[in-house]
Amino acid sequence: MKITIIGAGAIGGVVGAYLARAGADIQFVDINKEHVNNMNNKGLTISEKKETFTVPVNAFTMDEILAGRPTLDVVFLCVKALHTREAVKQFKHLLHEDSFVVSFQNGLCEYEIAEEIGADRTVGCFINLFADYLEPGLIEYGGVGSLYIGEIDGSVTSRVKKLVSLLSAWGEAKETDNILGYLWSKLSYGAVLTATATTNETIADVLDNPEYHELIVNTTREVVGVAERQGVITESFDDWEPQVVAYSDYQDVRDQLQVLTTRLRGYSKTRTGIWRDLAVRKRKTEVPHQLLPVIAAGQKVDRELPITTRIVQIIEEIEQGKRQMQVDNLNELARLAEATGVS
């Protein structure tokens, strides 16, 4: 099984490096030519809390892949959500009848991919890991999480089993017949994490602060509520329990968030990739492409998402330079959560 990883950043870089180190047939594709050159000349380096390793890899720019016109067997799509459709349109003519694409992304990108190449050639993936692209050829791996592979129609197939076996080189990959449950659960977690990115506070400090627990509860409840209206049951992962956070009493919620906070304080990465995009890389985030589809889905089932909507608006205002990253943003969201709590 030859794997082409398109997007050799945080997720693609980490997963691909582990597979390459285990001897898998991997090639990387990235738009950053300097990153590609460094990977080819010096290898791909993964920096972790306990170890740092470098693995030799083959890397190409997208232009080089398109010019060479190779046949792509299996594609791990690891680009930002906002680049999904553009990326698939570029390489889909290189796929053959049995090729398929696995979405290692945030959001509901599987639907966009399926619109371009068909649902039968689209495999769902839930991945939760904390990593950052630091510089060409170097990825910081700040916290191990979960990885689930599943067909978007819920069926169990041989290709899913093969992928899970392959990905065991990275860690404890699992198959699931409810990939949408994991994706929607991550969207609920992602909405909360996005709120933390409106400030310079760490994720753990925000989640550990009782002043923001109502915000966390009602944000989670908004997203989980939309999933449930669509018949999707959200799944728990990595100490994120969406059903507990959304619907339990205050003490149970506080206890659950304490468990999650303890996990997060053990990670070397303390803030989100969204925060890094805003504060360090000074570029637009993928937040609208992750959360606007959730808001639109809510509208279709007559469910308003005022907190999630405001989170997106604040992020866009920060991107446009109209607002600073500050605690006042969180406080504004907390007041909104108190005033418009979801029933």
How would you summarize what this structure contains?
The protein has helices at 10-21, 33-42, 62-68, 84-91, 109-117, 158-167, 179-196, 203-207, 213-229, 242-247, 250-265, 273-279, 287-300, 306-319, 327-339; strands at residues 3-6, 26-29, 44-47, 52-55, 59-60, 72-77, 95-103, 122-127, 130-135, 138-143, 147-151, 173-175.
Question: What CATH first level of the largest domain would be assigned?
Answer: Alpha Beta
Domain tally: 2
Strand percent estimate: 15-25%
Classify the helix fraction into a percent range. Answer: 40-55%
Q: List how many beta strands DSSP finds.
A: 12
In CATH, the topology of the largest domain is named Rossmann fold
The Rg value, from CA coordinates, equals 20 Å
Q: What is the level-2 CATH architecture name of the largest domain?
A: 3-Layer(aba) Sandwich
Quaternary state reads single chain
How does the overall form come out from the CA principal axes? globular
Biggest sheet layout: 8 strands, mixed
Structural class: alpha/beta
Distance between the termini: 48 Å
Per CATH, the superfamily of the largest domain is NAD(P)-binding Rossmann-like Domain
What's the mean pLDDT score?
95
* Topology pattern, helix = H, strand = E: EHEHEEEHEHEHEEEEHEHHHHHHHHH
Number of helical segments? 15
Q: Which stretches are low in confidence, meaning pLDDT under 50 for 5 or more residues running?
A: none
Kindly report the spatial arrangement of strands forming the biggest sheet. 5-2-1-6-7-8-11-12
